[in-house]
Each structure stands twice: as structure tokens, then as C-alpha cells.
Amino acid sequence: MTDPTSTRRTTDEVIARFNRAFQERDVSLLTDIVAPDCVMESVQPAPDGARFEGYDAAFGSWKALIDDTTSHFEVEDVHTGDEWALIRWRYVWGTGPEDSVRGVNVMRVVDGRIVEAAGYSKTVPVVAALEG
Asked: What is the C-alpha to C-alpha distance for residues 129 and 132, in angstroms, rounded to an integer?
């Protein structure tokens, strides 16, 4: 059964709230915007990332990122459509220019909840870099 309040949230609103959760380090902002059957694919480990299926798995992965105070995300750009969103970001874990990586999330929102999310980054696996 769909929560009637979730159907009133647009993709813009859901993605803005998702980004705010990371900026404010407030995991509670995610509780009702993640679908029960959400599928999330993370950036790591290379080459395909980890796959998280279901609310608990996806929510738990995002919660771990929000709770990690040694790093943060900087949102660079957001584009949304009816169901789809593209978030370009920079993930920062230190003070130097080499202590960050740029990436993108491709997300799908249905009935005011995130049902799909896939993260991609500009990182190169260490083995490939050494061979190149």
C-alpha cells in the first residue's frame, strides 16, 4: 500500500530532500522517501559496485555515508524529469585537491519514493592504473 503523502512529492522534492539529508547529515530525511523495493548500486567496489536490494539495505548504505564524518558530498548540479534524476557531485575525504572524486547518481522516483539509484565516479581501479 502506498503512503498517500508520498504521492504528492515530486521528483524535484524527493531529490532535494535526498541531497539535504547528506548536506545536513540528517538520515531521518530519508526515512519516507526510500521505496520498500528500492535497488541501489554503489560506486565501490570496482568494477560494478555493490548492489543493495530493499529498503533496509539501501537505507543502511546511505546512512553509513551520512554518518561518516570524515567525508562529505558536495552537490554540483541536479537535473530532474518526471521519474528520473541526475545528480552530479564531488565526494571529499581530505583537504587536498587529490582528496576528492567527482561522480554522478542516476535515480528513479515513483510515487514520491526512490525506487532505483546507481552511483558512478571518475575513479580508476588501482590495477588498471598500474597497467596503463
From this structure: 5
Question: Does this model's pTM top 0.90?
Answer: no
120 burial via Cβ count (<10 Å: 0-12, 13-18, 19+): middle
Quote the domain boundaries for residue 68. 6-131
1 domain-assigned: no
Domain membership of residue 44 (yes or no) is yes
User: pLDDT for 59-80, tens place per residue?
Assistant: 999 999 999 999 999 999 999 9
CATH number assigned to the domain comprising residue 123: 3.10.450.50
